[in-house]
Write a structure and sequence with these properties.
With 339 residues, this protein is of the alpha/beta class. The chain is built from eleven helices and twelve strands. It has one domain: TIM Barrel (Alpha-Beta Barrel). α2 links the parallel β2 and β3.
Length: 339
């Protein structure tokens, strides 16, 4: 069996060109992440997914996507349904039980869409708790404004994904909800005390610390490490994510091409691994940037390999049957009721 390296890459278009296939085959990324630029029809997506797995020589190689619903949905009409933003589930009438049921069912339906084209990892749920005055980058992507709601609905989404044979990724650990800047464009700094962070930001991640995959936050927490964002802070990764939060799943960075990070791409990747993150994520499909990440990435080994194998092992569990027509009718009725 071919052993993967500890990074995830993107690709440029609707299919892999000869150069991409050669680079992917040579560098052996653990996974591929897809964006709207890679999505056209179900047949096209399935072919792209299969060509990636052929290039790496691994039939179970992870293919990831950000399919949240609302404004972050890479697969949408006319070929796939439009799904609601996370915040919508907290507005459903009938109390917490109805809201949790709707979130779980919606996640199962999204997972069924993904599984049908071979995608087996969804970068969902967002467990960030938005604070007053924070940047709108989280906004309605959050399940609520309090940790208990976020944790309850986030777990329902994870359960729905796993029941349908797709791995969820909890993000952005240890919390992006207080950020007053968009980390795609600049580095946010959060000045809350550690106690405030533990009570609000970290709490949903602690409640879901048994999930198989997580994604870091490009945020500086001045009470923890005033010099480095969480993604490249060994203190944040070891003391907070692995320690206080207790997350022992496979941990990937957020996208290394985001402007929150500094240095060339090899330096960024090395900083990620030095901090104790398992996988470096590079999304834009530009191999001039991706190749230095690939060169810096070690072979997946040790605890990181164990975590990866444990996560992929969850895909071997039998899926629970789902009547898609009935489920879509039920979720439509659920979403029509507002608290």
């Amino acid at each position: 069996m071919t052993h993967p390296k500890a990074f995830i890459c993107g690709c440029k278009g609707l299919s892999l060109d000869a150069q991409e296939r050669a680079l992917i085959g040579r560098h052996q990324p653990w996974g591929l992440i897809l964006f709207k630029r890679n999505i056209d029809t179900p047949a096209q997506v399935a072919a792209l997914v299969e060509s990636f797995r052929e290039a790496v020589g691994r039939a179970d190689a992870p293919v990831l996507i950000d399919q949240e619903g609302g404004r972050v949905q890479r697969m949408g009409p006319p070929h796939w349904p439009a799904y609601p933003a996370a915040a919508r589930f907290g507005e459903i009438a009938g109390g917490r039980e109805a809201q949790v049921g709707a979130a779980r069912l919606s996640a199962r339906l999204m997972a069924a869409d993904l599984k049908a084209v071979g995608i087996n990892v969804d970068c969902l749920p967002v467990l960030d708790v938005p604070a007053p005055g924070s940047h709108a980058i989280v906004g309605d992507r959050a399940y609520g404004a309090d940790p208990a709601t976020v944790a309850a609905l986030g777990r329902a989404v994870c359960e729905g994904m796993l029941a349908q044979g797709v791995l969820p990724v909890v993000k952005h650990i240890p919390g992006h909800g207080r950020a007053k800047a968009d980390s795609h464009l600049e580095l946010p700094r959060v000045d809350a005390s550690r106690r405030e962070l533990e009570e609000m930001d970290f709490a949903p991640f602690s409640a879901l610390n048994d999930m198989p995959l997580g994604m870091t936050a490009h945020v500086v927490y001045t009470a923890l490490d005033p010099h480095n964002p969480g993604t490249t802070s060994r203190l944040v990764v070891e003391e907070i994510i692995r320690g206080h939060i207790g997350f022992d799943g496979l941990l990937m960075s957020d996208d290394l091409s985001m402007k929150a990070l500094s240095g060339d791409f090899g330096e960024r990747a090395r900083a990620v691994f030095a901090a104790g993150v398992d996988l470096a994520l590079h999304c834009n499909g530009d191999w001039a940037e991706t190749e230095p990440v690939a060169m810096a990435a070690p072979m997946l080994a040790g605890r990181s390999l164990e975590r990866a194998e444990r996560a992929l092992g969850l895909l071997l569990a039998p899926e629970q049957p789902l009547d898609l027509v009935d489920a879509r009718a039920r979720i439509h009725l659920m979403l029509a009721t507002t608290a």
